[in-house]
Structures are given as structure tokens and as C-alpha cells.
């Protein structure tokens, strides 16, 4: 028998692991472990936790519809595995890999637990669209690509030659089995998580009722390709419109695979600009694996000239800069913020307000529905001028100018800060009298401070 552990692959098709299990002609026990470490600090009430649980509920439903069994349990993963190995005649453990520091440590423990019980371990790498390990080997480089454009050229070349198509086995073709009652009882879900799953929507998790239940990612994709792809290049930065795909919350929990998205895109014309965004996703995953500092930049650089004095006001949408407060209001209310505004708010926090990027990163971890450890860190490193291909330290976005350029009629500010709706189209973008900082002076100060920070990290 095989144990298959679901993690950020909450779907029932295009799974490398399913193809493998099918080819082995063995029964399989399918388990999703809700990890107290990842759902701690009541994260299940926050948008990122709600998104995961909504998709977990949807996964359970998809298994049911396919006549198969999925067991959702709660506990420390290696302890759960130990119990499963004792309760079932297991020959092999199978999972998809994840590359964050916590996930790697967790998987080391899982491997050790399995190996101690003489159980084989088979894992698959399928986080990115392309096989990045093979890509790196094929590129023949000793050093990774540090700039996006040459990476993208090589990535495109590799894609055209070696793309690994979506797999064909659906969960309905597998022979899933029941979980031993003792194990089910030992790792039963706490009532609040059970309620969240049973409801399958945000209502049951309390406090995040404005987040809609998880829609079908395939119809989100179809809707985007049919209705918005043609206007994507011009509209993606027009943050008052819904011009982007909004697929990130589905991609990041694996509710739809990057391969499925890519193959659907191939049928459309005008795909280049959007495909580039999928390549940015791969570029951050690539960095997270090949840049040994990726998860440690805060230790490599001296961030002591920065402090958190303005962090709370920023997070509570009280900066006095209308576009920042509007974007933070949308984030806090819905779990969503358009990409351009993620860049503007993160740069404002790290540069104008001189706050360490780790505060914003941690805040987004709870608040973004589409939170992803690798992509979020990549975005925050970018705005803090750290890491590969980051924003130069002297190029600091002016939030008022960004607002006036990308949304001249201020529809976005009026939507999220209705108390400012009466201001003129010119006035509404400008800092208010109580703004935390003056934009020009704080920009000049940030340039000086970041020059010093970047020098502190030179090897
Ligand atoms: C500070 C900051 C934090 C961020 N945190 C996250 C995060 O936690 N999770 C997350 O998915 N994205 C994050 N991003 C990247 C980006 O904002 C989102 O991927 C994008 O807004 C998702 O919207 P969409 O699905 O409509 O994207 P679309 O514009 O439709 O793009 C399609 C897909 O391409 C990928 N993509 C698009 N833009 C980027 C980008 N700049 N970097 C990497 N991949 C991209 C995403 O997978 C996205 O779903 C962050 C960006 C910044 C500046």
C-alpha cells in the first residue's frame, strides 16, 4: 500500500504522483494533514488560512464525487505518519516537494520517519511550470540567472523544447482506502476546523465572511481567457478594473496546476504578456532554490537603521496617503490587493516609512488569500532592493503619482475610502494633512539609509 500526502496540491487531476501511483497498481491511502504550525496564531481565521481551508473542503468534495476517499486530519506531520505506518501495511510514502525552509525540514523528518520503518519514499517536483532542476542543469551555468530577462529567454527556449505536458490520471482511476479508525480518532480535526471545512465557505470560520467560497479554478481560468486576456497588457496596472486573472489563490494551493493553465493559454492569441507573468512565478521559485540567501537576507544585511514605528498605522490603513490606505483597506477586508498596489504599499512601508520588509512580509502572510511563501518573499525582497533583480534603491515609487497615473479618475480610492469621494480628481490622490511622512523628504532619507544597508551586505 502507498500513503499519499496532499499539501499545496489540492486538486484531483494533473498530479505527477497520481500517475505514479496508478502505474504501481497499488492501493493508496490519501491524507491531507492540517499542520498546527501552519495554521497557528488563528491563521485559519485570516484570509490566507480561509483560502486553504476552502480549497481543502472543495478537494474533499471532488474526492467524494469521484467515489474516492480523502482523510483530513490535524497534527504534527511526522507524528501522524508514525501512527499511519503502525496502523497500515505501508510500503511507500509519496508526496510532491515544497522548497520553503519549514517544508524542507518537515520533509526531512517525514523521510526519517518512513526510513526508520523501512518504508520507501518517492517525491516529485512540480511546483513550477517547468522542471527547474532540469532547466538549471540544461542551462549549463554554474551560477544561477540573476536577471529576469536572460532567464526568461532561456526559460522560453527550454519550454519550447522540453515542456513536460499535463498528466492524464484522475483520482477516480485510483484505489483509495479507508483510514484506520484509531488513527482517525487520534488526529481528528478540532471543532473549529471541522466547522470551517463542513461549511466550505468563510462564514463558518468567523470574521472573514466577505471572502467568497472557493470558486472552480477551471472556470476562473476560462472566464479570464475568454473575457480579459485580450485587454491584459493594457489593463493589468489599471488597478481600479479587474483586468488580471485572479488565479493566484488557486495556483498557490495547487487547486489548478501551472501546466493546465499554460496549456489552456496556448489556445489563445495575445498570450505573451501573461505568459511572462507565469515565468516570473518560475523565476522566484528558481531563486528560492538557487539563491542560498533567499530566505535569509535580513540576516545578511544590517537592517538596524530601520524600525517598526509606523508599521501599525500602515497595516490599519492610517497613513494619510489615500492610495496606500485604500489598498490596505481592500486587503484587510477581502484578502486581495492588485499587483501594482502591492508594489506601491510595500515600497512605501520599506522606504518612506523605513520599516524592515519582514514586518510587511509577515502581515501579508496572514492577510493575502493568495499568500505564497516564495512569491511573497520575492515581492518584499524586490521592494526592499534585496535579492536578484530587485528595484534599485534610488528608484522609489511615489504613491500619489502612481495613483494619478494608473487611476486618474480615482475610482479605486473612492471605492475603498468613500469618505474621500467628494474630493476633486486632482486633490484626492494627494497626501492628507495628517500624513505620517512627507513624500519628498522621506524619499531622500530612504535613499541614504538604503545605500548604507546595501553596503553592509557586500561579501
Ligand atoms: C510585495 C508583494 C507580495 C506578493 N505576494 C504574493 C503572494 O503571496 N502570492 C502570489 O501569488 N503573488 C504575490 N505577489 C505577486 C503578484 O502580486 C501576484 O501574483 C498577482 O497580483 C496575482 O494576481 P493574478 O493571479 O490576477 O495575476 P495575473 O496578473 O493574472 O498573473 C498570472 C499569474 O502569474 C503569476 N504572477 C503574476 N505577477 C507576478 C509577480 N509579480 N511575481 C510572481 N508571479 C507573478 C501569478 O502566479 C499569477 O497568478 C506579490 C507581489 C508583491 C509586490
TrEMBL record:
Signal peptide (UniProt feature, chain positions): none
Keyword annotations: Chromophore, FAD, Flavoprotein
Domain of life: Bacteria
PROSITE patterns membership: PHR_CRY_ALPHA_BETA (PS51645)
Residue span, Photolyase/cryptochrome alpha/beta domain: 1-129
Alphabetical list of Pfam families matching this protein: DNA_photolyase, FAD_binding_7
Cofactor (UniProt): FAD
Family affiliation: Belongs to the DNA photolyase family.
The name this protein goes by in its record: DNA photolyase family protein
Organism: Paenibacillus baimaensis
Amino acid at each position: 500500500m502507498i500513503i499519499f500526502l496532499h499539501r499545496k496540491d489540492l486538486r484531483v487531476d494533473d498530479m505527477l504522483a497520481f500517475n505514479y501511483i496508478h502505474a504501481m497498481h497499488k492501493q493508496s491511502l490519501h491524507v491531507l494533514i492540517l499542520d498546527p504550525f501552519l495554521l497557528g496564531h488563528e491563521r485559519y481565521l485570516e484570509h490566507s488560512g480561509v483560502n486553504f481551508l476552502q480549497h481543502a473542503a472543495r478537494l474533499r468534495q471532488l474526492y467524494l464525487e469521484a467515489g474516492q476517499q480523502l482523510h483530513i486530519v490535524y497534527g504534527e506531520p511526522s507524528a501522524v505518519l508514525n501512527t499511519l505506518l503502525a496502523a497500515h501495511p505501508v510500503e511507500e510514502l509519496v508526496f510532491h516537494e515544497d522548497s520553503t525552509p519549514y517544508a524542507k525540514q518537515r520533509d526531512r523528518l517525514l523521510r526519517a520517519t518512513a526510513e526508520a520503518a523501512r518504508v520507501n519514499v518517492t517525491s516529485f517536483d512540480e511546483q513550477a511550470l517547468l522542471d527547474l532542476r532540469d532547466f538549471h542543469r540544461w542551462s549549463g551555468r554554474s551560477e544561477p540567472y540573476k536577471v529576469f530577462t536572460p532567464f526568461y529567454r532561456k526559460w522560453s527556449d527550454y519550454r519550447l523544447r522540453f515542456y513536460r505536458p499535463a498528466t492524464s490520471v484522475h483520482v477516480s482511476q485510483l484505489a483509495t482506502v479507508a483510514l484506520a479508525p484509531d488513527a482517525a480518532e487520534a488526529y481528528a480535526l478540532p471543532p473549529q476546523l471541522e466547522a470551517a471545512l463542513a461549511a466550505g465557505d468563510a462564514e463558518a470560520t468567523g470574521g472573514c465572511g466577505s471572502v467568497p467560497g472557493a470558486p472552480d479554478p477551471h472556470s476562473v481560468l476560462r472566464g479570464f481567457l475568454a473575457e480579459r486576456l485580450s485587454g491584459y497588457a493594457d489593463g493589468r496596472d489599471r488597478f481600479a478594473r479587474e483586468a488580471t486573472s485572479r488565479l493566484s489563490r488557486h495556483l498557490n494551493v495547487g487547486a489548478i496546476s501551472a501546466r493546465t493553465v499554460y496549456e489552456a493559454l496556448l489556445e489563445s492569441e495575445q498570450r505573451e504578456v501573461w505568459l511572462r507573468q507565469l515565468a516570473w512565478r518560475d523565476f522566484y521559485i528558481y531563486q528560492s532554490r538557487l539563491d542560498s540567501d533567499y530566505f535569509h537576507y535580513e540576516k545578511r544585511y544590517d537592517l538596524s537603521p530601520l524600525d517598526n514605528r509606523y508599521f501599525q498605522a500602515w497595516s490599519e490603513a492610517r497613513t494619510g496617503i489615500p492610495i496606500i490606505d485604500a489598498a490596505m483597506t481592500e486587503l484587510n477586508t477581502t484578502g486581495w490587493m492588485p499587483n501594482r498596489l502591492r508594489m506601491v504599499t510595500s515600497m512605501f512601508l520599506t522606504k518612506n516609512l523605513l520599516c524592515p520588509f519582514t514586518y510587511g512580509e509577515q502581515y501579508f502572510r496572514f492577510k493575502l488569500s493568495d499568500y505564497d511563501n516564495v512569491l511573497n518573499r520575492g515581492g518584499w525582497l524586490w521592494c526592499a532592493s534585496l535579492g536578484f533583480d530587485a528595484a534599485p534603491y534610488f528608484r522609489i515609487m511615489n504613491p500619489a503619482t502612481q495613483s494619478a497615473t494608473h487611476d486618474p479618475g480615482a475610482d479605486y480610492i473612492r471605492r475603498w475610502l468613500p469618505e474621500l469621494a467628494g474630493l476633486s480628481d486632482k486633490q484626492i490622490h494627494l497626501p492628507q494633512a495628517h500624513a505620517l511622512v512627507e513624500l519628498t523628504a522621506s524619499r531622500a532619507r530612504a535613499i541614504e539609509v538604503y545605500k548604507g544597508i546595501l553596503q553592509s551586505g557586500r561579501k
